[in-house]
Write the structure tokens for this entry.
Amino acid sequence: MEKLPIGSRIEWTLPPKKSQFGPFFWLGCIFAALLLLLPKNEAEPAEHAQMGIISNFPEMYLETMPDAPTHIRKYILRFQSVAIAEQKKYGIPASIKMAQGILESGAGTSRLTNGSNNHFGVKCFAKGCRHTGCVNACDDSCDDHFRKYETAWMSWRDHSLILSDPTKRYAKYITKCDDYKCWANGLQKSGYATSKTYAKKLIGIIEKYDLQKLDKGLTFAP
């Protein structure tokens, strides 16, 4: 063994300590941190994507919903963003669309709605129905035929197209309306339904469940 000269400095080098975490672990940590920094946008419901609905509206606030039967509460929560989106696109008050949907479909529980996705009692008068067929159901008479839709969302859009069509009979009664009461009365006068209290029913539904808040872009919390 070789002897070192007196006074020589001895340096000890320890072997490098092996990390218990591999490079993939640290890459995963970096990726997770980056995800936390990204803005959090909830995924668009597939149903909304079918209609091109954008749910992240500016200035949206959550409001507490008044007491309502379970089926009505579920219906409002399911379609409130759709109603607001349709108002932005076609100018139809969200409260009117929601109230009509609740009234005409029994808040999604009617036989016509469950069997044909028809949420607004839209009838089919054409001999060759373009709306994926028609179904027979009793309304004013048992010979009435109603439009059948592939999805509920198609029904909501078709309803908007009908009410916003300047060639339809509704136009002259609702084009100058700027609030839900005027719209409700206009729909009754134009003959949307045969009920003589149709406007009163719509207004009653809107005010009972505070649906007028939807017209301002507000949504209800679950």
User: Anything to note?
Assistant: Residues 38-44, 52-59, 136-143 have pLDDT under 50 and may be disordered. The domain at 66-109+153-220 is CATH 1.10.530.10 (Lysozyme). DSSP finds nine helices and four strands in the chain. Residues 70-90 form the longest helix (21 residues).
